[in-house]
Design goal:
Blueprint (H helix, E strand, L loop, with lengths): L12 H19 L13 H18 L7 H26 L11 H20 L6 H24 L5 H6 L1 H16 L7 H6 L4 H21 L7 H29 L7 H7 L2 H5 L10 H29 L8 H22 L5 H33 L29
Helix pairs in contact: 1-3, 2-3, 2-4, 2-9, 3-4, 3-5, 4-5, 4-7, 5-15, 7-14, 7-15, 9-10, 9-11, 10-13, 11-13, 13-14, 14-15
Length: about 425
Amino acid sequence: MPPRYSTSLRGRLPWVLLILETTFILLFMFFFSQNYKFENNLQWYPAFQDVSAMIVVGFGFLFTFLKKFGFSGVAFNLLITVVGLQWAIILDSFLFNKSTDIPVVGMTSLRTGIMSVFPVLLSCGVVLGKVNPLQLVVMTALELPIFTANRYIMTTYLMMNDHVSMMYAHIFGAYFGLAVSWSMIPPLLGNKASEENEKSEATSDLFSMLGTLFMWMFWPSYNSVLLSDHAQLRNAVYNTYFTLAASTVTVFSASAFLNQKGKFKMIHVHNAVLAGGVSVGFTAYMLQNPWIALTLGLLAALISTCGFVYLQGTLNVTALVHDTCGVHCTFGLPGLFGGMAYAIIILLADYRSIHILKYQAVVVVGCVLLTLTLSLVGGLLTGFLLKCKLLRPPKEWHLFHDQPYWEFPHLASLI
């Protein structure tokens, strides 16, 4: 018997999307159209295209590991990306516009916009399958201003550069999503229907691995797309590849070692291999020795794999923090590790002024604490708002299932 399906979102979702898009059009019309300026720097388009493929294709297929949520995993990811990109460009253009001129729209705004969507997709990965598309759109609209404000505080008052401020997206997105998940408290424990739908199968895992491969290949572009200095850009690309290579080798080793039968688990491979790219994002542009990047990749992969084995299930049972995609272990913990490693590397670096050195390390720790505070508080408030009945939260028998949102003609006779 098919599960009972929720009522249609026809009276809400189409209007919310149309109102949002109309608002974006009006904002661009009145605040960007007069004396329209474009940056003539299309040399950044290849790197932007890499990041776009990483986010649209990589995340999209990464979210298909649930056996009955493949349509929604890919399509909702695209919807959130395009809504978030427009909203992020508007927020970034107004908040970071330091001149009295009309905001400039070009490759810089596109690069920062597509990267600002990253934490939103991470948060969506935590609650994947537990919220409907209307809730995801509302979550996107609420999360992006908080993340942009987080970056603004870091760059304006803590003197953090744009590239490093964007690397805190891993921490922000993971813990914002965990806070949303906790505050919504989905009734998953003991619900056999949701537990069965949450499982993966061979085909869904294979598609999810395809997403991992896209993200793995294009991660060097993500860690370097905001860098303008040629030497820093070169270092970021090289070191990211070294770190990803080390994390991949380590994941295969750790996955087999931690399994009593000595076999690999696909959840480790299509998640934890990305931990190296996450952890090195803070420091990739400044590392001069490949062995440091390799070491970061090894440690990040160990942290991520052990998190999947020992931590994820424990948090679900004891703290009622359910993480569908394992975002905490793939991005949150490696992101925290990368931030702390950044502070340590600054302390060990050979600078002339020890006072400036200590100050920079303190700033890095302060940025981590600021990001955790804003993400957790913002996520809790957003989660409580998402429980509003006007947003039609899905029932427990709707979780992790495509059919409440998609039309399946070949199953019409069964409904």
